[in-house]
Amino acid sequence: MRKKTVAGNWKMNLNKDEAVRLFGEIELRSEDVQDEVNLMVFPGHIYLDALLTARSYSSRILIGAQNFHPAEKGAYTGESSVAQLKQLGVDAVLIGHSERREYFGESHAFLKEKVNAAISHDLIPVFCCGEPLEIREKGEQEEYVQRQLEESLFHLPVTDFAKVVIAYEPIWAIGTGKTATKEQAEDMHSFIRSLVQLKYRQDTSDRTTILYGGSCNPSNAEELFSMPNVDGGLIGGASLKAEDFLQIARKR
User: Fold this and answer.
1) Residue 235, SS3?
2) Cβ atoms 210, 192 nearer than 8 A
3) Burial (Cβ within 10 Å: 0-12, 13-18, ≥19) of residue 71
4) What is the DSSP letter of 153?
5) Residue ranges covered by each domain of the chain
6) Which residues are substrate-binding (predicted)?
7) Which residues contact residue 209 at a Cβ distance below 8 angstroms, ignoring those fewer than 6 apart?
8) Mind telling me the catalytic residues?
9) What backbone phi and psi angles, to 5 degrees, belong to 177?
10) b/e for 97-109, b at 16 or more Cβ within 10 A?
11) Which DSSP helix (H) or strand (E) runs through 38?
């Protein structure tokens, strides 16, 4: 069965010393987090090498990149290829975060290319999906999320899809202090799992990890994670403090 996963998206925060120190604290204190919990962090891009160098040989923490370009190489000033990230030793990549979609215009088709590139280099794609407030208020959130999955993810054969982690992030709850209720989170996670079952099969659906993201913190993580289809969280602000992040990871 699927394992609980807690992933920290540090976004454009921390300097190098702070990033290395935070990673070291998480790594040192992760011993009291149950073995069946996967831990991941997504630091700022320019600190990936520093964290990968600092990571101990026996570390349980996966390190991921917040962004990459799907091309193998070429005239893409300021970008990094998935091949370059793989050579560094990166384990995972974020794809489809709402901030990349909104601020950088990443389309469904472009995200599909990124999914393919990540899979081709054996990196774990953490695929983000979720609706803005106006869509939620219209009651059209399921159709909105279904389109995101169908146009960027559901082209994969079952063997490749099995490598994907899905993160549901209601955009109206990201960095706003608002959080979906446990019932709202469970409803969408259950819906996503039903789509996976229809597209692929029951055993694939049962094994697919679906995370919740959107102002998840130590005070609300336990009730969110208590839902049967919520397999952990993609954590933003609360991942910038080791104790907060680890408290969330300890929640069941």
Assistant:
1) strand
2) yes
3) middle
4) T
5) 4-250
6) 9-11, 175, 215, 236-237
7) 2, 3, 5, 165, 166, 231, 232
8) 97, 169
9) 85, -15
10) bbbbbeeeebeee
11) strand 37-42
The structure tokens listed for 114 are 């990124």
Q: Which two three-digit tokens encode residue 205?
A: 């659906």
227-247 residue pLDDT tens: 999 999 999 999 999 999 999
The DSSP H or E segment spanning 132 is none
Q: What is the mean pLDDT of the chain?
A: 95
The series of mean pLDDT values per 10 residues for the chain, 252 residues long, is 92 98 95 91 97 93 98 97 97 97 97 98 98 94 98 98 97 78 96 98 96 92 95 96 96 80
CA dist., res. 118 & res. 67, Å (int): 11
In degrees and rounded to multiples of 5, residue 91 shows phi and psi of -100, -30
The confidence score (pLDDT) of residue 17 equals 98
Comparing CA positions, the residue from 15, 24, 9, 7 lying closest to residue 242 is 24
Q: Which helix (H) or strand (E) holds 104?
A: helix 98-104
The pLDDT value given to residue 2: 85
Q: Which of 103, 188, 93 is nearest to 146 (CA)?
A: 188
Binding residue ranges for substrate: 9-11, 175, 215, 236-237
Model pLDDT, residue 99: 95
Nearest to 177 by CA among 233, 131, 212, 215: 215
* Residue 158 and residue 198 in contact, taking contact as beta carbons nearer than 8 Å: no
Count CB atoms within 10 A of the CB of residue 42. Answer: 26
Annotated binding site: 9-11, 175, 215, 236-237
Task: For the chain, give the number of residues.
Answer: 252
The CATH number corresponding to 4-250 among 3.20.20.70, 3.90.280.10, 3.30.70.970, 3.40.50.970 equals 3.20.20.70
